[in-house]
Amino acid sequence: MHLLTRIQRHLRRTGTPPTRFGREVVGDPRFVADLRNGREVRSATEARVHAWLDRHEGCAQ
User: Is it the case that residue 11 has pLDDT exceeding 70?
Assistant: First the structure.
């Protein structure tokens, strides 16, 4: 699944603001907004975000 799609699903499901997600996961409150505007991330950052989501998806359900 595309990274941004997965993040947006998580945000909708949990009600987490995009700025909070970005700050907690990668230390950048503009992370989600930048992704929505076409930002490309390094593979290491993408893997880090997917790993974070993998750990937290069970908590949100």
Answer: yes
